[in-house]
Amino acid sequence: MSTTTEVVSKVDDQPKRRRRRKSGSGPAHEEPWAPYLFVSPFFILFSIFGIFTLVYTFWVSLHDWSLIGGMNEFTGIGNYTRLLEDPRFWKATGNTFSIMVLSTVPQMIMALILAEVLNDRLLKASHFFRSSLLVPNITSVVAIAIVFQSLFARQHGLINAVIQLVGFEPINWHAGRLTSHIAIASMVNWQFTGFNTLIFLAAMQAIPLSYYEAALIDGASRFQRFVRISLPLLRPAILFATVLSVIGQLQLFAQPLLFGAGAGSTSGGNDNQYLTILLYLYSQAFQQPFRFGYASAIAWTLVLVSALAAGLVFGVNALLDRRENRAERRSKKAAARKEAVR
Amino acid sequence: MRKYAPIAALAAMALVLAACGGGDNTPATGDADESTDATETTDDAEAAPSGDQITLNLWTFGNFGYDELIEEYEDDNPNIRIETLQQEFDAHHDALITSLAAGTGGPDVAAAEVAFIGAFTNQADSFVNLLDYGAADIQEDYLDWKWEQGTTLDGSATIGLPTDVGGLAICYRADLFDEAGLPTDRDEVSALWANSWEEYIDVGRQYADATGRAFIDNEGLLWDAVVNQSPDTYYDSNGEYIFEESEQVQYAWDVVISALEAEIDAKTPAWSAEWNAGMNNGDFAVLTCPAWMRGYIEDQAPDTAGNWDVATVPEGGGNWGGSHLVIPAQSEHPQEAYDFMSWILAPEQQLRVFEGTGNFPSTPELYDTPQIREFSSEFLNDAPLGEIYADNALDVVAQNVGPEYNLINSEFGEALNRVSDGIESPDEAWESAIANINRELGL
Prior knowledge:
The structure holds 2 protein chains of 2 kinds. By secondary structure, chain A is mostly helical. Chain A is about 75% helix and about 5% strand. Chain A has 15 helices and 2 strands. Chain A starts with a helix and ends with a helix. By secondary structure, chain B is α+β, with helices and mostly antiparallel strands. Chain B folds into 2 domains: about 170 residues, D-Maltodextrin-Binding Protein, domain 2; about 210 residues, D-Maltodextrin-Binding Protein, domain 2 (3-Layer(aba) Sandwich). In chain B, about 45% of the residues lie in helices and about 10% in strands. Chain B is globular, with a radius of gyration of 25 Å. Chain B starts with a helix and ends with a helix.
């Protein structure tokens, strides 16, 4: 029985293979399950450590569940309604978005400028500059936070020393909501600007030089070339970097934790000035009163908020796309009209 | 047959994954060098002829100073091996609580700091009741108030044996006191504020007027010192919340507010880099000083050796820090764990720990021994530390720490810090603190 099937398969393999080769889609699939096997390790691990934990977290979030006392009772959406009325959660959400804006926007602008500078072919020792950009990125966040904590320290901080030298009153960075956000955002900016610069640089180098040459012949200035050629063509890269940054900032944890004065301070400032969503989650779950179910509800809310924020970025991008397409169509129509008139 | 190949492959992979997950039979990473040395492995096997070698896992934080004692215990009990895991304060308690939540993966013996012990006695089911193992027989060895902290409110279960106590004293910079025209002798300094915290603040005012510098480091440690001097702080002895009406809480609040209004604090938060720098720079002249603080000052400000001295704390006893050892209920060897624990916390062993690390014993019978009575430190200008801390520890009154001590205490601490930063007035801060605590506790 097996021999007949083999013969049959050999017989109709021939034309198939030829057809495939023609279309150039790679070797024949003699074991159709092979690709699934090769990708399965990721999906197995993902279902254990990703999907299962997500579902289990949701299950926990529906209960009054103490970390050391265990499960108490099913509360349904009780944790979620409580969350909506929790002023600390809303403050943490506001802080998270504020720090996100303060770190994402300047980061993207600086990364674009740096990438433009580094893309200059006349720049000497460009390899040195490019690799040094990655140094902050591979520095431990704890080390960064300790350095920045002493930079922004109230009494003996370098920044306050400079401010006093210029003749102003020293700033109590931890006390103000905006000042603490600026301090924390500056840590994030310092760490991730280089990484984004490299993404932009790679994308810039993929832009054909002929575009710039043509613009140069037309008499475009360097600024015009940047705004009219580089920026529009970099949009996919900017989108990618922004989504990464937004999702990363929504999960901001170590920086505000370590910026907090003293050891183990999870309150995010004496008035929760820099309490982020994740810091709040941690303090609810792992500190008294060990409210594990409530923390799980925060986690699920954070998942939804992240999806919304990423969706928002994609939405803006789609809007820009549509506008561009319309503009293109309009200019094509105008060109056609001109042609017709001629 | 071929059709089943993918399923077989997946099954094989699942087996591999399962093997990675099941840790019982795979050697721990630390054993790697042991298995290469075959002779040593056989030696171990010979040492335990009965074959029931028992490994106890011990989790501690900071520096408990047990290494030497553990070696000795292993020599005396060849069938017991003790694996220690020593972490930082937060990492240790996080890991312990996570293992309690998981119901597995925890140690056989764990340290629990005083800030956590109330939460643990409230969940006594998660721990072994030491009374079942005869702990009542050794109760007399320990300070009453410390013993009670490790016992449930109804007294039906004791989950923790006391390790060290913090005690409380005031460390002061004699050189800076001299500059300010204040007395420098420790007895005279203690007499300056013997009666009340108000006197302490008055000294601070004099100091600040004379030098233009701050007297205390921050308002938080002052709060901790004052509020813990009474049995009725956040909970009464029945476990009811009394944080809002407690006289001691109100009194501590008023003391700290008057210190803030006198502007004698350096506004350097505890454990921050600025605080450490302040110990060197003389940004403040006094520090709330439990027994274990000496090591911290020595580490952070070695150049100030001999400038510090120690006075007693106003208004009697007090305690800051100290721990218990507990046995999680999931331990498979509670009897062996208890045997080990009761040995290492016996007075003789506590004395050796004290001599090694300075962690102050919780066993009062040692307080009359010459080793404690005559103990002093050159760094602290030969102040009679043993005497000061022993007398102080005997003065402490039992306090029901309560399951949410940390939460309530840090809300008050942050409220006072808001006053210090000028964000809220004292009255606003009190109201917001009470409101925050009520909301967090779901009252």
